[in-house]
Amino acid sequence: MNTQRFWQLIEAARNQAPDPNDAEEVARRATSLLATHPAEEIVAAQQVLWNLIADSYTNPLWAAAYVVNGGCSDDGFDYFRGWLIAQGREVFERVVADPDALIDMPVVRAAAADGIDLNCEETLTIAWNAHITATGKRLPDDAFTIRYPNLDPAWDFDFDDRDEMSRRLPRLAVLHLE
Q: Which long-range contacts link 150-154 to residues 24+ away (Cβ below 8 Å)?
């Protein structure tokens, strides 16, 4: 499985979900769909997933997750990126390129109004669970590698600094920090 086929899997899961904004349901459906593939493709999907997690490992996105969720630990950032992947390729790529674009998503504005965190740990287990379903066995220990890029030192500041966050993520800050 390559990146394009992985995104097609996510899109198919979103199309099947009664509410495509329900990231956990999208992840469950993606797991079920992936479980119908050969084991080799499931293993390959695990690497694609972790490549996307690494590609989205940026300070600006972490800062946006911090604003949106009212804080964001290391694990919380992984789960936020799981939620972001479940939103589909177009949203993922747009938001990774411009994290302030999260404000354009109605689900983000609704979550802010309701005080709901945007995260989906289940996305991170799509291939793991699909492999168990398909083969009865865990993914091989060497199913993936992950190499996080270095974070941008220009974004090494206290994310609780409202003025700095407002300067760097002005659209999100209006919604979440005021």
A: 151/57, 151/58, 151/59, 151/62, 152/58, 152/59, 152/60, 154/59
Rounded Cα distance between 42 and 104, Å, is 33
Give the model confidence (pLDDT) of 71-130 as tens digits. 999 999 999 999 999 999 999 999 999 999 999 999 999 998 898 999 999 999 999 999
Nearest to residue 129, comparing CAs of 48, 64, 45, 51? Answer: 45
Residue 175, pLDDT > 90, answer no
SS3 label, residue 161: coil
Q: In one letter, which amino acid is 87?
A: Q
Rounded to a whole number of angstroms, the distance between the first and last alpha carbons of the chain is: 44
Integer CA distances (angstroms), 105 to 112, 124, 150, in order? 11, 22, 28
| pTM: predicted TM-score of the whole model, two decimal places | 0.96
Number of CB atoms found within 10 A of residue 49's CB:
25
For the four alpha carbons of 150, 76, 61 and 56, in that order, the dihedral sign comes to: positive
